[in-house]
Structures are given as C-alpha cells and as structure tokens.
C-alpha cells in the first residue's frame, strides 16, 4: 500500500521534524495544512519546497480551501493566494472542503464554484481534490453529488475526489469511485459510546482493531477496484496529537492495516 501522512497526525512537530518522521516511516508523500498546524501562514513556500526536496518527499496536497462551494466574499482571493502558495511550495494539489455549518448550498452554486476555481488550478498546474464531508450539517455530503457537479462544470480533467473513510461512513455511502479518486484519507473511531450521527473530528484516531468505521473493508474495496493512489493518515483527536512517540503509533497502525488488507 502507498501510505502517506497528513501533518494533522503530529501537529506539534515542526515542518522539518514532520518531514523527518515521514522518512523514518519509509514514506515518500506528505500533506501540509493551513490550519493545524498552519504551515501556509508561517513558512515561506520556497522553504517548504526546499525542505521537502531535501527530505526526498512529495507534497501531495495542502489542506484546505474552505468553504470552496460558496464563491463569494474573499473566497476568490483566498483561493488564488492558496493556489499560488501550493505552486511555489511544490504541492501537487489543493484539498477543497464544502461549507459545514448547516447552511444549504444549491447545486448550481456548487457547479459555479467549481467552474470559477478551474482556471485558478489550471494556470498553476494543480489538481483540485474535492472532499465531501459526511457530517449531517455539511452542504456536500456525498461523492456522487460532487462528481455530478464536477461533470456539470466540465472539470473532469482538473478535479479528483478525496475518499475519506470517516466521512464515507458518516454519510452512509456505499458507492466507491476509485477511477475518479485522487487521495484517500484514513482515520478511525474507537469510542463505543458515540453514535454515528454524533461523530466529530475530535473522535478520529489512528486505525486499529477497535475501529468502528470499517476502514479495512473500505480499503479492501478500493484496492480490489485498482486504486493505486496514496492512503494518507488524518487523525484529529487530541489524544493522538498528544502522543510522545507519534512515529511508533503510526508504524503500528500502518502495520495493522497492511497485514489485515
């Protein structure tokens, strides 16, 4: 399997230490962020590129442009600035997340946003990684709707899906689109008390045998369908961020998944 690691897995690590951790795990692909930790807001993109090249790493993506499907206010400017940063840092793609506050967004507005974002990505040689969020309050919950909008926007050559195992489970999705998927995000939920409808980012941990999200079944389906892209770990739980040895925990989770799939 082609594992990768998102900086959210160990946000206390500096960029250089995060890259070093990836190398220690034998990984060649990483994701950086503009929230936790805010690499985009604190590190010059040329320094990011140099550090990645020195470590022998490819930056899959920057997480994330939000809310990409509400193309108003300062979003167009923020989108261009983030795309500029991605290009200068050597990142291959931008993750794009929809509005997630209970407000509905019309399908036509989603299509319009994808159309507006398309030239920004094309001009910089970037891929747009559209990530539906499965939360009940999300304005874009399913990959099928995302694909319909991408096709309506004529964006099949620019956009790919993020298959997030957490959000796939929360949305109750059963469909997989491996041929349209560019990236898989992996995280698990082990808390036996929380209902699926109440699961939040704070519940997302590294995948182990107690996982409730059927990560292994999802990954097997993607592997069997021929998906060859990266499986990137993206746990948000505070207990993961507080680990004194995140590399060991990551190695354990990678080994568990690899031998189980």
Can you walk me through this structure?
With 261 residues, this protein is of the alpha/beta class. It has a single domain, classed as TIM Barrel (Alpha-Beta Barrel), CATH 3.20.20.150. 38% of the residues lie in helices and 15% in strands. It is built from nine helices and eight strands. It has helices spanning 15-24, 45-55, 75-89, 107-123, 143-152, 165-170, 215-224, 238-241, 246-260; strands at residues 3-6, 29-33, 58-65, 93-96, 127-130, 159-164, 181-186, 231-233. It has an eight-stranded parallel beta barrel with strand order 1-2-3-4-5-6-7-8, surrounded by four helices. Strand 2 (29-33), helix 2 and strand 3 form a beta-alpha-beta unit. Helix 4 (107-123) crosses helix 5. The longest helix has 17 residues, at 107-123. The mean pLDDT is 98.
Give the topology.
Blueprint: E1 3-6, H1 15-24, E2 29-33, H2 45-55, E3 58-65, H3 75-89, E4 93-96, H4 107-123, E5 127-130, H5 143-152, E6 159-164, H6 165-170, E7 181-186, H7 215-224, E8 231-233, H8 238-241, H9 246-260
Parallel strand pairs: 1-2, 1-8, 2-3, 3-4, 4-5, 5-6, 6-7, 7-8
């Amino acid at each position: 399997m082609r594992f990768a690691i998102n900086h959210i897995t160990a946000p206390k690590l500096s960029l250089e230490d995060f890259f070093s951790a990836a190398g220690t795990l034998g990984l060649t692909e990483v994701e950086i962020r503009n929230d936790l930790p805010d690499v985009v807001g604190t590190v010059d993109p040329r320094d990011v590129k140099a550090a990645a090249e020195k470590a022998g790493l490819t930056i899959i993506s920057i997480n994330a442009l939000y809310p990409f499907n509400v193309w108003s206010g300062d979003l167009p400017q923020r989108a261009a600035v983030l795309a500029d940063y991605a290009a200068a840092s050597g990142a291959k793609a931008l993750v794009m997340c929809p509005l997630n506050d209970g407000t509905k967004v019309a399908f036509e507005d989603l299509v319009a946003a994808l159309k507006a974002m398309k030239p920004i990505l094309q001009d910089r040689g970037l891929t747009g990684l559209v990530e539906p969020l499965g939360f009940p309050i999300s304005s874009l919950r399913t990959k099928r709707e995302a694909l319909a909008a991408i096709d309506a926007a004529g964006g099949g050559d620019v956009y790919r899906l993020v298959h997030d195992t957490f959000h796939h489970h929360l949305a109750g999705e059963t469909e997989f689109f491996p041929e349209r998927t560019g990236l898989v995000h992996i995280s698990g939920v082990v808390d036996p008390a929380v209902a699926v409808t109440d699961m939040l980012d704070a519940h997302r941990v590294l995948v182990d045998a107690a996982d409730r999200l059927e990560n292994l079944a999802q990954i097997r389906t993607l592997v069997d369908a021929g998906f060859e892209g990266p499986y990137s770990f993206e746990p948000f739980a505070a207990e993961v961020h507080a680990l004194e040895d995140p590399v060991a925990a990551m190695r354990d989770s990678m080994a568990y998944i690899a031998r189980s799939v």
